[in-house]
Write a structure and sequence with these properties.
The chain is mainly β and 165 residues long. The chain has one domain: Beta Complex (Metal Binding Protein, Guanine Nucleotide Exchange Factor, Chain A), CATH 2.170.150.20. Strands 6, 7, 8, 9, 10, 11 and 12 form a 7-stranded antiparallel β-sheet that branches. Strands 5-4-13-14 form a 4-stranded antiparallel β-sheet, with no helix packed on it. A two-stranded antiparallel ribbon has the order 1-2. The chain starts with a strand and ends with a helix. The chain binds zinc ion (ZN). The site of zinc ion has 8 residues, from loops.
Amino acid sequence: MEFDGTFLIQSKVDVETDTKLQLTQPATLHCWQCSRILGDSLGVCGEMKQLDSIICLKVTYDVAVSEATTVSRGGAMANCVYSPLKCRRCHSALGRFIRAAPSHLAAVRNMFLLYKPNIGCYILKSSSVVTARAVTFDTKTCKESMDEVRQGNVYSDAEVLYVQL
Ligand SMILES: [Zn+2]
């Protein structure tokens, strides 16, 4: 794996196993076709399994949002208004930007849904690229995160005291 300052040079490890990786380490998201950087793990809010998509709060400028809007008539995104997303470099379809959604899908309003089969993940710690299909983007609830903090799994006691202040 090499990074030439603009994009990753192709040497992908396409993990096609049944083993799913939990995204707990910093990672960047890439176009699977051309490796352009599309976002990072800090902008990931979770995933929508019905659509095989990653929910992102923010993405890079290389994700082009179409001006055209479409209304879903059925399926998991019924009655949602969205715009298609494309890679600005290679024009691959990347997913959709949700402009409006019914109340039961309020969590994805104004969010970017990146279609996992077209996305790669560069895991910084291991310097490896895997398809996003091999990664789960489930997020923890605030309670789960606080429980970890209280159990000392994440921070030292001093840091926990700081959080409580
Ligand atoms: Zn691309």
